[in-house]
Design a protein that fits this description.
single chain, alpha+beta, 2 domains, 6-stranded antiparallel β-sheet, 24% strand
Length: 216
Amino acid sequence: MRHIIVNNGEIDLSFFRDFNKVEDKLSFKLIGIKENTEYLEDVPYKKFEDLAMVPICLVRNEKIGDGHITIKNTHLDMWGITYEDLWNSVPENAEKNTQIKIVSMADYLGEECVNKRKALEKILIVTNKEQNYGAGTVLLPGVLEKISDKYGKNLYVLPASVHETLVLPECGKGNEAKELENIVHQVNAGVLNEEEFLSDKIYYYEKSAGFLAICD
């Protein structure tokens, strides 16, 4: 899914002037706050820990493919709505518009992980069907709850990139959280492109409370 520049002349975006026509196309993407402070100045984002839930309008076109328009504060003025109006609509429509994709690391790697398949089966890649700006799917209603119910355990959520997260059940052995955080740091420093970076933190989902937060 690529970002669409309004006024590029490739598709008709006249609908974008009317919030009633935009509302059912709403969704959001996740990016880091610290690394995007300037970008976020004119964005009515919602804060989640160290991350920004950035509202977007999905645009689908047969000729140029799917894309999205990032919603700015100026758009709220144009529509005559408030920040609260926007975010009252985003979650429900994001859930409706997102096709969630969950695959085990073992299945993703296939024959490459024959010797480690059992261990990798419990590591899940959570993203959207497009595998593009899909990290926010873990915040959609019921996603972590269902995974937690499947394993009967609390979960760790690792920010692999802006496109996906890794979710795995808590083992409770050794200094598990610290080891996972070190892995995230190593991947971010050595493998991930700067524009795909999401966070150096890891997150913990407490099953009994249904609550996700930075793992301290």
